[in-house]
Write a structure and sequence with these properties.
The structure holds two protein chains of two kinds.
Chain A: H1 2-44, H2 50-54, H3 68-98, H4 102-116, H5 120-135, H6 140-163, H7 168-176, H8 181-192, H9 194-209, H10 213-216, H11 236-244, H12 249-277
Helix pairs in contact in A: 1-12, 3-6, 3-9, 3-11, 4-6, 5-6, 6-9, 7-8, 9-12, 11-12
Chain B: H1 2-31, H2 33-39, H3 42-45, H4 59-90, H5 93-108, H6 111-138, H7 153-177, H8 181-189, H9 194-223, H10 226-231, H11 249-256, H12 262-292
The chains are: A mainly alpha, B mainly alpha.
């Protein structure tokens, strides 16, 4: 009898120990986030000022300067990426949820997930070979295309996931009124899932906004203003990388400031996603 | 009529994923044809990386990639799986969502920013605090031998671990959530404690899926580029020591592609081809495991 009680206590004790151990593991998993964030604010905050948003980079050792051109460049690249990734991804998602057979859909979904796993540096060299070498110049177009290719599978999967949640009754009701299938899809199905589709697009944008590897050999980076999309263009992640591996102290400070701004931008996108999905049964 | 056009059009858009994989594969192969012809299979087993004499072998990079990914898995797998268990089985309900959100935020931090943190915070910390202690107590082991420079394979592995923890955790968590409640209730009914329920009823049921999550993490680890490039030291050498600088497939492309031409460039394309094939195979395996895992609805 005493042994069973003892045994039971041991088992309870083991269970409690493991709970504590897994809690510690969870803390260690979250710790890097806190550490990175603390350092970003400590090292970056002092260099984020008006100059940072209005000036182009200054030379090594010169004080001042900013990343205005890189911020605008990132926005331009994201715009180009959307122009390529959004229509392709959303319409592909429409196909997966509205048309298509079971087997074809399985294959396409599978390929999407495989594509998501392709290292982003691969996109950089492939687009370099396809666009940059024939055009004989690094360009914003090439950078946008690389980011757009990254977005396609992401947007396609999330669009499909929200479209299949639209109740079939909506489609049937519209078809019963004699509305053509394509009109039903655009005006009824996609419209009622619009929030979810936008959520998916924002998530994909947040994901590619910080990508550096695909831009290294496509957009290249630029320390000056550039309005010509067929020429190299600056981007925030590229500028951070270039400054981080440089030997100059003032450039290091600028890199931290750029990192703080980039993280701020990405977290804002993520939080607006949470705001959009709040109180909605949409699982994205 | 409009319907048919619309359906065909959307089908073409969905088909682009197929096209993209073909284009990537073709471009990598086409870009490396000269190098494949010249070096053949020898490319994969030669450790000669010498742009001056136009001799190229990928072994140091394959070695560096494997070692850094292995270190990353050794660190990330126990932490991620334990966290997933904590989040689904053991944690009080009110802490679950906040921790999940924090892990999502960790996943959203761009690679280049982790690299920045790695260069200026993690590597100096390792060099001054951690590595000397490791060397003092574990120096007898060849893994912890040699000069401490700072940037090293161990630092690369650690930064990759931080990058793959979120994906392994979130996929494992979804696997655990998908375990039917009846499993747990049956074990509780037999008088099992919380941990015993987890071990007997949940983990044994979910282990295949968790394995899939780990393989998925491995796929990400192999292709991780920016953060690793910034902390691994970028030296093409094969060394038993974890304190020695190394080089990975992805980081040699990132560092040397823009200055390369001719056979040099072709060799870098071939390295890209190797990386592409390996990650495709690893991801294929992961997806097959995850998609055939009963009842799991896993998204990435």
């Amino acid at each position: 009898m005493t042994t069973t009680v003892h045994n039971h206590r041991m088992r309870k004790g083991l269970s409690a120990c493991i709970s504590v151990f897994t809690l510690l593991c969870a803390c260690m998993v979250v710790a890097p986030l806190g550490l990175v964030f603390i350092h970003l604010v400590r090292m970056g905050a002092s260099a984020v000022n008006l100059d940072f948003f209005t000036h182009i980079p200054s030379g090594p050792g010169e004080p001042g300067g900013g990343m205005a051109n890189a911020i605008v460049g990132t926005l331009i690249l994201l715009g180009l990426a959307c122009a390529i990734g959004v229509p392709t991804g959303v319409l592909g998602g429409v196909y997966l949820s509205e048309f298509g057979s079971l087997r074809v859909n399985w294959a396409i979904r599978f390929l999407c997930d495989i594509l998501n796993g392709v290292p982003s540096i691969i996109w950089g060299i492939v687009i370099n070979g396809l666009i940059v070498i024939p055009m004989k110049s690094y360009s914003a177009y090439a950078g946008g295309l690389a980011l757009g290719c990254l977005m396609i599978p992401l947007v396609m999967r999330t669009t499909e996931e929200v479209l299949v949640l639209v109740p079939n009754g909506y489609r049937e009701a519209a078809l019963a009124l004699g509305i053509a299938r394509w009109r039903t899809t655009i005006h009824i199905v996609m419209k009622s899932a619009a929030r979810g589709i936008i959520t998916g697009i924002l998530l994909a944008l947040a994901r590619v906004a910080g990508e550096t590897a695909p831009l290294l050999f496509t957009a290249l980076g630029n320390s000056f203003w550039n309005n010509d999309l067929s020429k190299p263009i600056a981007a925030l992640p590229l500028q951070i990388f270039a400054y981080a591996i440089s030997p100059y102290d003032n450039w290091h400070r600028q890199a931290w400031a750029g990192a703080l701004v980039l993280v701020g931008f990405i977290f804002t996108l993520n939080i607006s996603v949470r705001f959009l999905t709040r109180g909605k049964p949409v699982r994205v | 009529m409009g319907d048919r056009i619309f359906a065909t059009f959307t089908m073409l858009m969905a088909g682009t994923v197929f096209l993209l994989i073909l284009i990537v594969g073709w471009q990598l192969w086409n870009g490396s044809r000269m190098s494949i012809q010249k070096f053949g299979f020898h490319f994969l087993v030669s450790s000669d990386w010498d742009p001056v004499n136009d001799q190229y072998g990928a072994l140091p990079f394959i070695f560096g990639t494997l070692v850094s990914s292995l270190i990353a898995l050794v660190i990330a797998v126990p932490l991620s799986v334990a966290t997933a268990i904590y989040l689904t089985e053991l944690a009080p309900l009110w802490v679950r969502q906040p921790i999940v959100s924090l892990i999502e935020m960790l996943a959203a931090i761009p690679s280049v920013i982790l690299g920045l943190w790695g260069i200026f915070v993690m590597v100096p910390w390792l060099r001054v605090e951690v590595l000397p202690i490791l060397q003092r107590y574990m120096g007898w082991c060849p893994l912890f031998h040699g000069t401490i420079y700072g940037p090293c394979v161990l630092a690369g592995g650690m930064i990759i671990a931080i990058m793959i923890i979120p994906i392994i955790t979130s996929v494992s968590r979804e696997i655990l959530v998908s375990v039917p409640h009846l499993q747990r209730e049956a074990a509780y009914a037999l008088g099992a404690t919380r941990w015993e329920v987890t071990r007997i009823a949940v983990l044994s049921y979910a282990k295949r899926g968790i394995f899939g999550a780990i393989i998925l993490g491995l796929g990400r680890a192999l292709g991780e580029t920016m953060a690793v490039t910034m902390v691994i030291g970028n030296t093409p050498q094969i060394s038993a020591s974890l304190f020695a600088p190394g080089y990975t497939l992805a980081s040699v492309i990132a560092n040397e592609f823009s200055e390369a031409s001719d056979l040099y460039l072709q060799s870098l394309f071939e390295i890209g081809l190797v990386l592409f094939c390996v990650t495709i195979l690893v991801n294929l395996l992961a997806q097959l495991i995850l998609k055939t895992f009963a009842g799991a609805t896993v998204k990435q």
